[in-house]
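Bench log. Compound arrived from synthesis this morning; before running ITC I wanted a structural hypothesis for how adenosine monophosphate sits in the protein. Inputs:
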Amino acid sequence: MNIILLGPPGAGKGTQARLLVEKHGFVQLSTGDMLRAARTSGTEMGKQVAAVMDRGDLVTDEIVIGLIAEQLDTGAGAKGVIFDGFPRTLAQADALSELLTGRGARLDAVVEMRVDDEAVIRRISGRFTCDRCGEVYHDDTKRPADPEACDKCGENKFKRRADDNADSVRTRLLAYYRETSPLIGYYYAKGQLRSVDGMGEIDAVHTAIESALRP
Ligand code: AMP
């Protein structure tokens, strides 16, 4: 099954993608994670996108489409792919459709996660992740049981994203409304959109996504 998780920054796409990966063995393709990895490893592309990402603007379609094409070519997504943070523009949506068709695959569903803007800002502001396994935590709502160790893998190092600050969050939200939210209408018109309430507890949202994915 190939699925897009669609929603503003902080909607919980990454968290829900990880749950779907654990349960179904899908592969999570997050362009945000790929871009951050490129920055960490210091590639030319990583250097090129750093300032854009920190500001909260979108990097070029060409770069992210290239990253997704590369991943699809590795064949890693044989059991299914969760696209997390991609596509974010209509051009990316069209490119994805072509990439899948060209590989004899298709998009099965687009799940829109509905959240309110204030909640998004609150969620992003307190967010941190495990440095090793990427488990997502929050200062107010989900702290590790032992503050010195990740619940999942025991790692004692956590990190916060450089773009999880008030200015970047506003810019990211603006980019979402300007560039990405038209995809809701686009996929609705194609009969592929399913919307879930993204405001509940993590498990409740997961259950809602599972039922939205049932035929
Ligand atoms: P994310 O981890 O999905 O919140 O993405 C972090 C940042 O990476 C975004 O604010 C953008 O600067 C960049 N980015 C990630 N995915 C895309 C995409 N599909 N198109 C353009 N920029 C992206």
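What the model suggests: The longest strand covers residues 109-114. DSSP finds nine helices and eight strands in the chain.
ITC booked for Thursday regardless.
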